[in-house]
Structure formats: C-alpha cells, structure tokens
C-alpha cells in the first residue's frame, strides 16, 4: 500500500507499512539499548551499596552470624509488614525463609508482594529471612553456616514462646538441602519444613532429560570447582554457577530473553530490570565451601546415605531423624531440580510407606505441571496457589498421621459442601501414597549406577589435582589476579560495557528520553512485524534443536564412558553398583522395642480426650484422603472452648499420635481399653454418636466402618439399637448430639490414615509408629469421609439400655468400672459454640497435580487450576 497522504501532498510515494516498521525498529533499538544501559547502571549501584537483598519489604537485622564464635557471612532479618498487610500476630506460627546461596544474592523468596514472604505477611504471621553477604568470612565452611542457621532458629523460638507451633521454615533450592541437614541434627528447632525446588537425590533423573546431572562426570569430577577456587585466590565466583544455569537453555539465554524485552519495550523494562538486579548480583563462596558441596552432595550424593558428619565426628546427618512434617514442592517444568531429584531420597531412606509411619515421619509432596525452577520462587501464580495453600494448611499438616501424602490443590466447586470452612479460592487435600508411587515418577534407577563410577573417578582426579596442580596455582594467584578474572567474566562484562562506565555511551539516555516523547509503535498486524515474529520463532526452534542434540550427545558420551564395565573395574567399583540398603540398624530395632515397652501401660490409661481420640481412630481405620474442611471446623471449635478447655494444637498432635501408635500396635487391646478411658455412660454415648455423625458426613457409612462402630458400641456396653435404629429413632437421638446448649464434650479431631491391624501384636518395627489425625476429603474420593465437629447433648442423657458385654469387654482391665473423674485441664470441657453441621455430597476423585514422566498432563476442568 502506498501512503495516500503522501501522494495527495505531492511527496514521493513511500510504502507506509515499511516506513512504520522502520521507524518503530529505530525507536525500539534505542529504547532496548537504553534499558541495558539502565541495567548496567543499576548493577554498579547495587555493587557500590554492598549488594543488599533484593527484597521488596523493609527488614531489620536482629542477629549477625559474623559475630558468632564460629562466624559465617549470614544474618537473620525480621521482615516488617507493609501498610497493606494486617498487623503481625505474635501468637501465630513464625515463618522463616532461607534463600539459596547458589551464585546469586538473597531475596528471591521476597522478590515481590506475591511471594513466600508476602503470603506469610498477608496471613498475619511473623516472618523472618535468612540472608547472607557478598563476601564469605575467612575460614567459613558449610558447617559454620549450619551452626549459624541453628542459632537463628533458636532465636526465633525464643522470640515466640507462645506461638501455636514451632517455626515453619522454607528452604528454596540449595537452601533446602541446608535446611534438611539442620532439621536432621537439631529437630527440636523446627516445625514443618518446606523444600521448594531443592535437590536431595543428586544422581536421579530420567534418560533423555535432566542433562545437568551429567556435568560432573563429563568434567572429570569435582577438580574443576577446586581449580576455580584456586584461580579466585581461595574464593569461588558465583558467576560460574549462573553461567551453568544459563547454558541449560541457550534459546532463552541467547535470544528469547532479549527479544522479549525488544518486542515489549514499552511495558517490559521495569520487570526486566527488577529481575536482572537479582540475577546479576553474583556472590562469592569460599573454596572449601564449594568443594564440600560438590564432593559431598552433587558428585558424592552422601546426604541421603547418612555419610555426612561434623568435623569432630560428634554429629551425623540422618534425615530419618527429622521429627517435623517434610513438605516437598517440585515441578515437571524444572530442568534444574527435576521431581526425581526432589523426591527419590524418600525411596533411598524408606522401603515403604509403612516404614515411614514406623519412623513417625510425615512427608507431603506437591508436583506442579509446568512451572520452571525460578517460577517456584518468583511466580505470582505459584505463590497465590501452592505457597498460600501450604501456609493455610500448616496446622493440618502438622497433625497429619505419619506417612506419605501427595497434596492436590483444586479450585472450589460452586456446589462444594462446607465452603464456610474454606479460606480463599482453592481447596487442598492430602492423598495417601506409597513409596512405589515415588519410584513410578522415574524410569528406573539402574542409570544411577554409573554415578558410582563418576564418584570414584572424581576422587582420583581430585587427589591428583590437590597434590600436583593446586599448590602451584595457589602460589601464583593473588587477590589482584582473582579480581581481574571476576571483572572479565562475561556475566559481569556485559553489564559494565553497557553502563555509565563506558564513556562512549554518554548520549544514550538523552536520546532515549526524546524517543519516548515521540514514540510511535508499529501496528500488531503490520506484515513486517508478523514476519519478524515468525523469524523469532524459527530462531527459538533452531536453538532448542541444538540444545536437544547437544544434550543427547552429552548423555551418550557419559553412558559410553561411565557405564563401561572396564572403567568400573579399573577404578575399583563393582560394575553392578552398590545395592541400596534401607535395612534397620540394631539401634533402630532396639529403639522400637523400647518404645513398644513404654507404650504398654497406655492401653488402659489416659484422659477422656485420649479415649475420644482413640474411638475416632479405631472406627476410621483405612481412610486415605485428608481434607482441610473438617480440620478447619475442628480448629474453630477449639478456639470457641479455649478458655474452658485449653487444648492447643501441639497437645492435640501429641494425643492423636500417641493413640494411633496404640491402635496400630494392638487394635483389639486398644478397643478393650476404651471403657477405662470413657468410664461415664453419658460420655460414652456422646462419643459414639459423634463418631457416627463424623463418619456419616459424606453419605452412608461403609460396611467396614459400620462394623467397627458396632464393635465399639458393644465394648462400651451401649444399646445396640443406637446404630441399627429406624430413621425415627435416629431423629430422636440426633438432638442429643447437635443441641446448641453447652455440654461436656471431647475435643473433635480429624480422622487418621491407618491400616487395619490384626488381633496379634505387631513387630517392634511397627510398635514405634505413631499417627496423627488425617481428615478425609468430602470432594475427593467416594471412600473418603469428611470430619466435622458436632455439638453435644444439652440435657442429661437417658441411661442407655444395657447391652450384653462383648467378649472383648470382659477382660480384667474392664471388670472394675471407676467413677467418672472430674474433668481437668487435660480432659473434656463444655463446648460453648458448636459448629454448624453440613452434609457433604460425594464427588469423584480429583486428578493429582503430578503426572508421570512421558504422560501428558491430565486435562483440567475449566477453572480448575490457576496459571503459574
């Protein structure tokens, strides 16, 4: 098309689309380079200011680890809530965020308002941030850092002695494995821990994917990290780690990131500059720290095998020692920490979910379908969905029965029952899983055998380097040479060349300002712009194809070298690899025996609350889905009666875990002990009716659970007609449970996840297992039961008809029936405001968040999942 205005004006005709595109390209080019100039300017200012954390929140340093006896370049900061957040509630569980020290500076966990820190502040939790400084302390080691973080958590516990639970600690990426080690050696300092995108099983992965795990073997082991440390005069430059990350996706590094800025030059610069401020803030590590990380973790893979000890040998890192719930958040779109590296440590430590329960450990994992590694920390969608739901369900997770669960997060259906007990737009449920489900996410673990050879080759090369090369390099290097090498690194050079340090670019800011005043963006349907978009897509496809060919070639080379039986024999490694061993040690078996002996008297001893919890646990054996709605209702009731019956979350957790251990150890004996824990006939009646109502919230009670209810009724000498009554009789009995007038009642709890136990006493291995309450999902699986507290009787209960005692009740433990004791602070108190009873309709099970490798993500119903 020729310009009509140009022709009518007597000017030389010119194709208008070409002119528009040419003018826009010139303006975009100037604005693009001006944005890079501003990036360089921000980089210089960031360096001159000491590279502070890139947090968007105000903070106050309350503890500096550089002043500790074993100093480290870490500090604990208290986050100040902004004006748009509610005031901090000191009684709420504090949050502690540990950012990764993987080449960048701290702050990614609080990079924006919709972040891990922002979610905690919006819910009124006190929030603390573990930050670090650009230069490590001389002589600092990973052990020094671990000790510093232990001091930080001790300080947080001291600042919140009245909080309802220990601190919730989030470890991002490499902050996750540091947190796992700390929780292993000092489990009393932490509450639930969240490992977000954290690698713990470093050799794991899928063939044809995850090429980063091959880097150590292709480089010949860990000696290259020592080389970089020697050239840096004892310091390892974090820019090397950033460069490794960028090599994983050459299309993004070489084209997409820059083109996205160019194509969206009118809207993208600020977001680009904010991210680049963190991405370009490279920090240093001591050579000893980086050597420890590469030798012990990435190549050695010693964390999950319990081979990491303190320098004096007094402390050993064993992840089986963690007592708090462990939450793992990973993503199928993460090419740095794939789900296998985030989860396979579970299979390394445990043979089965039963083994996890026996060790009294609770593990919850959540798999995102597509978000990348950085998106786990910086995506607003992830923060507002996964992190927000984890934060809201913390108390529930803390009282979950020991075992393995997958967290599934869905949008709330319009007709979902119990919406008054749901906060926000999502609902979270926890589905019981087995270790075999974790292994199913992998394509087999035979490919990890080659890494045993890598480890041995690395040790040989490291020894040669340390003896013959390192002394010469350390003698030749100095701080001046190390500084020069750092300044010439491409990651820094590209920023300083386009910055105020370059005198040849003095004209760029002024010209960019004039361009903004006369900006004329090209139309989106301009044919040349559309051609440019197609060309950009072709470049991305070409670079992705190059990446795939490169990764495939590297994998084939790795397998050809390290899967060779000849090389394995040459370096002294059995070609088949060392067998995995999760067998219980003598100490573990002996501890299980002692715990079983300690539990023995508790079958016939306990408070009314213990009895009520045991009744619920017994009748709910076999439920494998936990829903947040019943627990939220229970917490509401607990808050209503807190002045008369001050049952805290931790007390409820202890009661439930203790009673589940008894039920799993010997279910028949636990049942026979119920009459001693519930000696009063009226309370027995109330407890039984409440258990029946809880089981019936999601529809007809399954035959298996109805049978247990009948068995309990016989044991408690209740009228058998209670559970087999006609509808009229049931309606007559219902007010006794749902009456609004306060009566003495037992604390409502969520149903547990447990397996049927035979009449025989189980082994010592099973004796050590305790379980916390698990709540069924009313909108998940048909077999799940929604638990909801019900009010108690308001008038004196009529004496139930005497039923012939069952054989289980005719034991020495139940022949003498003691009088009902006066309720104490540890027993049952009146419920002032019972929760409204809501019936729950059955709903088909929702799809799990995670998908097995090679399986396309399950199609979601419209509006089912928010975008990350």
From TrEMBL:
For this protein, the record's InterPro entries field holds:
AB_hydrolase_fold, DUF3141, PHA/PHB_synthase
* Location of region: Disordered: 766-868
Name the source's superkingdom: Bacteria
**Pfam families per the UniProt record, alphabetical:** DUF3141
Q: Where is the composition biased (Low complexity)?
A: 766-823, 850-868
The chain's coiled-coil residues are: none
| Chain ranges passing through the membrane | none
Name of the molecule in the record:
DUF3141 domain-containing protein
Q: Which organism is it from?
A: Chromobacterium indicum
- Organism placement in taxonomy: Bacteria, Pseudomonadati, Pseudomonadota, Betaproteobacteria, Neisseriales
């Amino acid at each position: 098309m020729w310009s009509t205005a140009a022709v009518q004006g007597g000017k030389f005709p010119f194709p208008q689309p070409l002119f528009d595109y040419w003018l826009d390209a010139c303006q975009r080019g100037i604005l693009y380079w001006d944005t890079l100039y501003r990036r360089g300017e921000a980089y210089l200012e960031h360096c001159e200011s000491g590279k502070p954390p890139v947090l968007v929140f105000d903070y106050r340093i309350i503890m500096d680890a550089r002043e500790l006896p074993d100093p480290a370049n870490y500090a604990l900061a208290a986050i100040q809530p902004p004006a748009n957040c509610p005031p901090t509630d000191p009684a709420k569980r504090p949050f502690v965020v540990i950012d990764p020290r993987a080449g960048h500076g701290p702050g990614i966990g609080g990079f924006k308002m919709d972040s891990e820190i922002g979610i905690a502040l919006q819910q009124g939790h006190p929030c603390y941030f573990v930050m670090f400084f650009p230069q490590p302390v001389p002589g600092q080691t990973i052990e020094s850092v671990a000790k510093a973080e232990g001091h930080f958590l001790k300080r947080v516990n001291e600042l919140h002695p009245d909080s309802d639970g220990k601190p919730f600690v989030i470890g991002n990426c490499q902050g996750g494995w540091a947190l796992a080690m700390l929780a292993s050696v000092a489990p009393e300092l932490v509450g639930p821990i969240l490992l977000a995108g954290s690698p713990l099983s470093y050799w794991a992965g899928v063939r044809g994917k995850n090429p980063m795990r091959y880097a150590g073997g292709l480089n010949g082991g860990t000696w290259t990290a020592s080389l970089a440390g020697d050239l840096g005069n004892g310091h390892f430059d974090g820019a090397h780690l950033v460069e490794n990350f960028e090599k994983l996706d050459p299309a993004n590094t070489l084209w997409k990131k820059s083109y996205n800025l160019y194509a969206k030059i009118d809207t993208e610069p600020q977001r680009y500059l904010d991210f680049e401020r963190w991405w370009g803030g490279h920090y240093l590590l001591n050579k000893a720290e980086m050597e420890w990380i590469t030798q012990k973790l990435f190549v050695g893979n010693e964390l999950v095998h319990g081979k990491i000890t303190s320098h004096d040998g007094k402390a050993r890192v064993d992840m089986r020692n963690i007592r708090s719930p462990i939450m793992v958040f990973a993503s199928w779109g993460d090419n740095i920490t794939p789900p296998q590296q985030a989860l396979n440590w579970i299979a390394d430590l445990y043979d089965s979910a039963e083994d996890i329960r026996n060790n009294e450990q609770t593990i919850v994992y959540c798999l995102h379908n597509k978000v990348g590694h950085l998106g786990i920390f910086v995506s607003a969608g992830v923060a507002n969905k996964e992190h927000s739901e984890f934060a809201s369900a913390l108390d529930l997770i803390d009282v979950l029965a020991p075992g393995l669960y997958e967290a599934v997060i869905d949008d709330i259906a319009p007709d979902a029952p119990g919406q008054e007990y749901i906060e926000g737009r999502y609902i979270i449920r926890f589905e019981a899983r087995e270790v075999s489900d974790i292994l199913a996410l992998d394509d087999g673990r035979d490919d990890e055998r080659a890494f045993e050879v890598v480890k041995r080759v690395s040790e040989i090369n490291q020894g040669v380097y340390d003896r013959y090369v390192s002394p010469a390099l350390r003698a030749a290097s100095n701080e001046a040479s190390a500084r020069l090498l750092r300044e010439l690194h491409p990651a820094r050079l590209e920023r300083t060349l386009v910055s105020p340090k370059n005198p040849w670019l003095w004209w760029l800011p002024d010209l960019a300002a004039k361009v903004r005043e006369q900006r004329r963006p090209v139309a989106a349907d301009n044919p040349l712009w559309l051609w440019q978009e197609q060309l950009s897509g072709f470049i991305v496809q070409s670079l992705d194809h190059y990446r795939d060919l490169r990764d495939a070639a590297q994998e084939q080379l790795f397998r050809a070298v390290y899967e060779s039986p000849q090389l394995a024999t040459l370096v002294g490694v059995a070609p088949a690899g060392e067998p995995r061993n999760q067998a219980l040690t003598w100490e573990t078996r002996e501890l299980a025996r002692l715990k079983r002996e300690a539990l023995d008297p508790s079958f016939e001893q306990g408070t009314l609350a213990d009895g009520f919890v045991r009744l619920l646990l017994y009748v709910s054996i076999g439920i494998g889905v936990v829903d947040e709605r019943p627990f939220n209702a229970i917490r509401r009731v607990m808050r209503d009666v807190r002045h008369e019956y001050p049952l805290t979350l931790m007390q409820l957790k202890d009661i439930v875990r203790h009673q589940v251990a008894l039920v799993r150890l010997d279910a028949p004996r636990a049942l026979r002990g119920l009459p001693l824990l519930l000696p009063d006939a009226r309370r027995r009646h109330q407890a039984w009716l409440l258990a029946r109502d809880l089981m019936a919230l999601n529809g007809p009670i399954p035959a298996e659970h109805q049978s247990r209810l009948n068995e309990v009724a016989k044991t408690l000498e209740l009228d058998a007609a209670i559970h087999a009554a006609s509808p009229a009789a049931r309606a007559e009995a219902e007010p006794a449970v749902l009456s609004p007038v306060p009566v003495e009642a037992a604390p409502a709890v969520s149903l547990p996840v447990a397996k049927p136990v035979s009449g025989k006493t189980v082994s010592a291995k099973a004796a050590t297992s305790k379980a916390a309450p698990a709540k069924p999902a009313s909108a998940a699986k048909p077999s799940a039961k929604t638990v909801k507290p019900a009010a108690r009787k308001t008038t004196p209960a009529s004496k139930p008809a005497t039923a012939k005692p069952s054989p289980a009740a005719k034991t020495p433990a139940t022949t003498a029936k003691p009088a009902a004791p006066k309720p104490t602070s540890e027993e049952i108190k009146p419920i002032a405001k019972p929760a409204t009873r809501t019936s729950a309709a059955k709903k088909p099970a929702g799809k799990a968040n995670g998908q097995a490798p090679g399986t396309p993500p399950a199609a979601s119903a419209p509006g089912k999942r928010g975008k990350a």
